[in-house]
């Protein structure tokens, strides 16, 4: 029903406006008696065989919602009813910021893709914390970044502010230095600044009564040499894992007319590259750390390929928009079928 009726209607309108409309609709529907149970009955697959234990956390199933969809932690409780095993909120910054000028979100229908140049638009970490206090048992990842006006030499401070503010309200952290939409942010992926940043967060982490897992989200555009550096950095800083991958700046093989828009590309064109990066990291590190696979998952087959390449969990974003919530169920059903 989603792909035949709902999606064509939604895709008639501006993507960012539709995003806010959909949020309002899901929130409103979820308030009606019985709707939460209806969503769960349609999409949730519960089975012990789907459970995964990673970095001291128990995930009900390995299919999560990637960061960027619920930036401000406004809808994570309702979204979990669609069957997600975990929800990653953010990217959050210390101070609220509007992000880049509109229009900044573009559908590439012919390519089953999206280009975004949102620019970490969010209401600031403190407001998100207030909403996270209403968590009803959803496993939450907190994706953190720096404000646009903060120079790279002061970036560590921004990440530390977000880390401390969110610490009691998220289950794991994701350090985002790989978005192409904040000027010079990707320079923080270089070995020296990235090592310093992760070490600083680990110092804070080990000052807490109990540490929280810290993961690093990387770009799909890194060279093999840079990926080897990432493996080395994970080992040196003793962070808990990697999310592979963020959006790409590549435009190779695209058919859509608006393919030249600036920003990060997500969706089907990213499927193979994201899986390649996962496989490279898993093989070259001898599976030394957990990997969350994200990028171009539009079918159960795509998800299984990432898991077989070395991912421990997967996340959806663009695939969720194009395929609808049934995709979550399809992946979990395929995993159960494989477990027989």
TrEMBL record:
Cofactor note: Binds 1 FMN per subunit.
PROSITE patterns per the UniProt record, alphabetical: DHODEHASE_2
List of residues binding substrate: 71, 116-120, 176, 181, 246-247
Associated pathway: Pyrimidine metabolism; UMP biosynthesis via de novo pathway; orotate from (S)-dihydroorotate (quinone route): step 1/1
UniProt keywords, alphabetically: Cell membrane, Flavoprotein, FMN, Membrane, Oxidoreductase, Pyrimidine biosynthesis
Cofactor(s) it depends on: FMN
Lineage top rank: taxon: Bacteria
Alphabetized CDD domains for the sequence: DHOD_2_like
Location in or out of the cell: Cell membrane; Membrane
InterPro entries named among the record's database cross-references: Aldolase_TIM (IPR013785), DHO_dehydrogenase (IPR050074), Dihydroorotate_DH_1_2 (IPR012135), Dihydroorotate_DH_2 (IPR005719), Dihydroorotate_DH_cat (IPR005720), Dihydroorotate_DH_CS (IPR001295)
Annotated membrane topology: Peripheral membrane protein
Binding site for FMN: 67-71, 91, 143, 176, 217, 245, 267, 296, 317-318
GO molecular function terms attached to this record: dihydroorotate dehydrogenase (quinone) activity
Catalytic center residues: 179 (nucleophile)
Domain Dihydroorotate dehydrogenase catalytic: 50-336
Enzyme Commission number: 1.3.5.2
Subunit architecture: Monomer.
Similarity comment text for this entry: Belongs to the dihydroorotate dehydrogenase family. Type 2 subfamily.
Protein known as: Dihydroorotate dehydrogenase (quinone)
Species of origin: Winogradskyella echinorum
């Amino acid at each position: 029903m989603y792909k035949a009726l709902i999606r064509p209607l939604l895709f008639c309108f501006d993507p960012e406006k539709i995003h806010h409309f959909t949020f309002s609709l899901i929130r409103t529907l979820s308030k009606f008696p019985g709707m939460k149970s209806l969503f769960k009955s349609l999409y949730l697959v519960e089975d012990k065989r789907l459970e995964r234990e990673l970095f001291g956390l128990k995930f009900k199933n390995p299919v999560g919602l990637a960061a960027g969809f619920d930036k401000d932690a406004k809808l994570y409780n309702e979204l979990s009813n669609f069957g997600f095993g975990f929800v990653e909120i953010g990217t959050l910054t210390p101070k609220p910021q509007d992000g880049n000028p509109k229009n900044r979100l573009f559908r590439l229908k012919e390519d089953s893709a999206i280009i975004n140049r949102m620019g970490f638009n969010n209401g600031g970490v403190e407001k998100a914390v207030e909403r996270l206090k209403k968590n009803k048992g959803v496993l939450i990842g907190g994706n953190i970044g720096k404000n646009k006006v903060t120079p790279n030499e002061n970036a560590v401070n921004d990440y530390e502010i977000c880390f401390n503010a969110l610490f009691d309200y998220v289950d794991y952290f994701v350090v985002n230095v790989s978005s192409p939409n904040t000027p010079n942010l990707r320079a923080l992926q270089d070995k020296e600044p990235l090592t310093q940043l992760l070490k600083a967060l680990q110092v804070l982490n080990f000052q807490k009564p109990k540490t929280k897992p810290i993961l690093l989200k990387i770009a799909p555009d890194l060279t093999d040499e840079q990926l080897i550096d990432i493996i080395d950095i994970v080992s040196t800083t003793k962070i808990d894992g990697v999310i592979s991958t963020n959006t790409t700046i590549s435009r190779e093989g695209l058919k859509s007319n608006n393919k030249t828009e600036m920003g990060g590309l997500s969706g089907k064109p990213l499927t193979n590259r994201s899986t390649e990066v996962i496989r490279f990291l898993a093989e070259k590190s001898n599976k030394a750390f957990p990997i969350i696979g994200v990028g171009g998952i539009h079918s159960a087959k795509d998800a299984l390929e990432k898991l077989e390449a070395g991912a421990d969990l997967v996340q959806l974003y663009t695939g969720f928009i194009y395929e609808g919530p049934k995709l979550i169920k399809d992946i979990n059903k395929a995993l159960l079928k494989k477990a027989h």
